[in-house]
Amino acid sequence: MGRNADAIKEGVAIATSAARLVVKNQILVNTIAQGGTFDNERYAADARAALFALAEEQDDAAELTRQLRKRAHGRHSDPIGTHDYRDRDVRNLRRRAKQYSGVAQRLRALTENHEAVSTLVEEAREAAWADVANNLQRRLHVEGMRADQDPDYETMREARMQALKLVDLQALASDQRARQKKNPAAND
Question: Can you give the residue ranges of every domain in the chain?
């Protein structure tokens, strides 16, 4: 009984982490990419939908495991592959099906628990903000770096100068020629 309870608890933890990631990504897309505002209720609905979808996956896995168990019952030959179960696997498959069903049941219960959903949304919001803050820190550090603070400045200077000559200046010259062809009177 302890092993099942531990496996169910671990499955719920993994599934809630996955739901949190779904909600975090929704927050990032909707608030940053689409310019929306943060709405707790909207993301609570997203969290419930994610938890429910994960519960459905667990139910599907339980059903598949039950089918595999029935097929394995009474088969005593050597297995051909990894998922070619035999009679000796029936007990383990029964335990797995119970665990999948237990995870699904707990996930559905979480969808009805307002406090748990609110906590999941808040953790997702904090994770989204951490992603944004880390990204800004990285960009500010790189874009704001001065030559005297960059330990690789001298090493990379020659490569940067070559790129400037071969890429940037060539593109600029090409752009200038195209403008001159379009408007020759402006050059006089």
Answer: 2-143, 153-187
Q: According to the 3-state scheme, what is the secondary structure of the chain?
A: CHHHHHHHHHHHHHHHHHHHHHHHHHHHHHHHHCCCCCCHHHHHHHHHHHHHHHHHHHHHHHHHHHHHHHHHCCCCCCCCCCCCCCHHHHHHHHHHHHHHHHHHHHHHHHHHCHHHHHHHHHHHHHHHHHHHHHHHHHHHHHHCCCHHHCCCHHHHHHHHHHHHHHHHHHHHHHHHHHHHHHCHHHHC
Q: Residue 1: pLDDT band by 50, 70, 90 thresholds?
A: very low
Whole-prediction pTM: 0.70
Distance, in Å, from the CA atom of 64 to the CA atom of 3, rounded to the nearest integer, reads 21
Confidence class for position 36, pLDDT limits 50, 70, 90: confident
SS3 159: helix
